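Hi R.,

As promised, here are both runs. First protein below:
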Amino acid sequence: MSSKYKRVLLKLSGESLMGSQNFGIDPDALNGFADQVVDAHKMGVEIGIVIGGGNIFRGVQASAHGIHKVSGDQMGMLATVINSIAFQNTLEDRGIQTRLQTAIKMEQIAEPFIRRRAIRHLEKGRVVIFGAGTGNPYFTTDTAAVLRAIEIEADLVVKGTRVNGIYDCDPEKNDNAVLFDDITFKEVMEKDLRVMDHTAITLCSENKLHLKVINMNTKGNLIKMLKGEKIGTSINN
């Protein structure tokens, strides 16, 4: 069965790469996510990826310890590039052609982000990984993911988490948390559900960009969702 979507942007948190560790990159988690991307690629889906950097460095925590907010965010952007390089290598080990584009110029490591070039890579069947966030402080990698999705004209943003979707409260703290199958961007904002920051949600809503939240720790969820199965939470206007 083929995918319902031609082009998607997958957003992974840096913390998801920690797996069972307290810091850094867990090879099992990295390989598990890469396997799902490979399976999606084999379906013919054009895939862009944005990965956070919280497993290595968080600007918010740094600013609480005396590092200037701008400097902390810049350090966080570099952490996303480290994760992106790791993911790129893992995909290429599986025979998938990739390109890494960064919002901060670092030519010895990656291409600068150029929208038309990114789209061309996708059309040629390459997985494109977008590193260094938006290149600006005060913006999260969630916002970067939505921005890149809009720029590459993706059909869908998939946010991979470690829970089964969006709940009315934290399911890891409350056994009675209720899972939403479908919800609107307005309801997400009104209920302050924090699936993404408000800037990212507003960008999705204003650009009529479909958002799905799924549990990427469950093997096969990405493929099931791409085929149209009811996986996770669907968010629209």
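And here is the second one, sequence first, then its structure tokens:
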Amino acid sequence: MYSITITNQQDEFPVNESLIHNAVEAALKIHGVVNAVMDIAILDPEEMQKVNARHLGHDYPADVLSFLLEETDDSIEGEVLVCPAVASEWSKKYGWEPENELVLYAVHGTLHMIGFDDLTPEDEVEMRAAEREVLAEFNLTPPWELKDGAADGSDSDV
């Protein structure tokens, strides 16, 4: 059973909350999470920068932050913070819609809580594959997809 709450705390960018909700749910299902309580907060860049500085010591607005609050064998509870303003900037670079970039952030943060990481090249390959698997459920192809199907996360900020 999933409880996914989306709180849009910004008004500069339109947000497809239903798509974000469904993508987070898909990430949980695909990766075998039985129970989850997820809060997805959509923040303006100023608030995202404050949270990023407070928790990670980085004085800039992050694209996505995730906080795992509780975990058991079959459930997780956590919060994913995403920033549409950052998504808008990166989507221009990647040549896809800001809405898609924002969905990617929500999926990415959820995957972190499930146990995926992207700190090493090997972990990043696994993370990118997991992202692609979830996004494919919504007919979305990440912009770093190469012609041979390999992931190229070298330019990614997620």
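A quick note on the second one: The longest strand covers residues 35-42. Let me know what you think.

Best,
J.
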